[in-house]
Amino acid sequence: RAKASGRNTFCLYNSSMDTKATEQLHLESKMREALGNSEFTLHYQPQFDLQSGQIIGAEALVRWRHPELGLVPPGKFIPVAENSGLIVEMGEWIVFEACRQAKEWQSLGLGNLVMGINISPIQFRRGDVEQLVTSALNATGLAPELIELELTESLLLEDSQHLKVILRNLRQLGLRFSIDDFGTGYSNLSYLKHFEVERLKIDQSFIRRLTEDAHDEAIVRAIIQVANSLKLQLIAEGIEDQASLTRLIELGCEQGQGYLWSPALPADEFQQFVIRHQTSRAS
Ligand code: C2E
Ligand code: MG
Ligand code: MG
Ligand code: MG
User: Fold this and answer.
1) Inter-helix orientation angle 242-251/214-229, to 10°
2) Alpha carbon of 31 to those of 44, 182, 251, 263: distances in Å?
3) CB-side exposure of 182: number of CA atoms within 13 Å?
4) Considering only CA atoms, which of 115, 121, 20, 23 is closest in space to residue 78?
5) Which atom in ligand 1 lies closest to the alpha carbon of residue 117?
6) Where in the numbering of this chain does the EAL domain appear (predicted)?
7) Residue 4: per-residue pLDDT
8) DSSP designation for 51
């Protein structure tokens, strides 16, 4: 919207007067305010078992309800939050809110939906993720098995002893882990030996042209083989059409999420979506 109108989304004042750095500082202070004003919100995208059609979980995706700009997608502000370190505080709110919501849905009888939470590598380096998750679980009473932390390949390639200890402790608590955007980062898969994860998430860039591009299909096949050999669950992100879904099922992919079913929804709409879905499957 802002791009189309020729104005940069975050030029809240004349950018020609300012350096990029000033702009970032400005945005950062806006985000700090936004955290205090509860302007951030989580939307939830349903995840499906492709064979049974059942909803198995949700991915929590943060949005900024900006008073003037409207709903701002995370791609516009997460990088700034990461550069400024504000991602730690924002990530704390995200983890607490996602756990609270997961517990609420479980209490409402929506089922044992696993809540996927994206964790920035910066948060792992600068924040105390172990302490954070522990206190969120205690505060909400959510079972650790219902949380899946989505990690990036770049984080796991750091080969840090500190990180290994944190992840091992969190696993011992019963948390699940997945690797987000799998296949985009590195061809070096050695980290899969050192870090136990439950699930790989095939990046949507391989799914988008799956039925038209033989290379993308070859990559998806290879990823499915890796997951099968390592006995990991696998979910495809960004499934937008029936043809891709059919192809993915043929190739042996077991789980998926994407606009074919639903974009990420506000909590109340997600809840309605799940209830409608369950009702229509039961009848
Ligand atoms: P991601 O974790 O890989 O999330 C998937 C993105 O793909 C989401 O974009 C989702 O809305 C979008 N998506 C889902 N299905 C489809 C589809 O069928 N077609 C297309 N074209 N897109 C689809 P979103 O919400 O804009 O998030 C973008 C990225 O921002 C995320 O990528 C993640 O890296 C980051 N992010 C989002 N929420 C959080 C958060 O709470 N914490 C952190 N640290 N990062 C977040
Ligand atoms: Mg994700
Ligand atoms: Mg992803
Ligand atoms: Mg991504």
Assistant:
1) 40
2) 21, 29, 43, 24
3) 27
4) 121
5) 41
6) 24-278
7) 43
8) T
C-alpha 31 – ligand 1 centre gap (Å): 19
pLDDT, tens only, 149-186: 999 998 998 878 889 999 999 999 999 999 999 988 76
Q: 247 CA to middle of ligand 1, Å?
A: 23
Structure tokens at 135: 């206190």
Task: Give the distance from CA 197 to its chain's centroid.
Answer: 15
pLDDT band at 14 (very low <50, low <70, confident <90, very high): low
Residue with tokens 């985009």: 184
- How far is C-alpha 105 from the geometric centre of its chain's CA atoms? 18
Pocket of ligand 1 (CB under 6 A): 45, 60-62, 73-75, 78, 91, 94, 118-120, 150, 180-181, 204, 237-240, 257-259, 263-264
Ligand 1 atom closest to Cα of residue 152? 34
Q: Nearest C-alpha to atom 16 of ligand 1 is from which residue?
A: 238
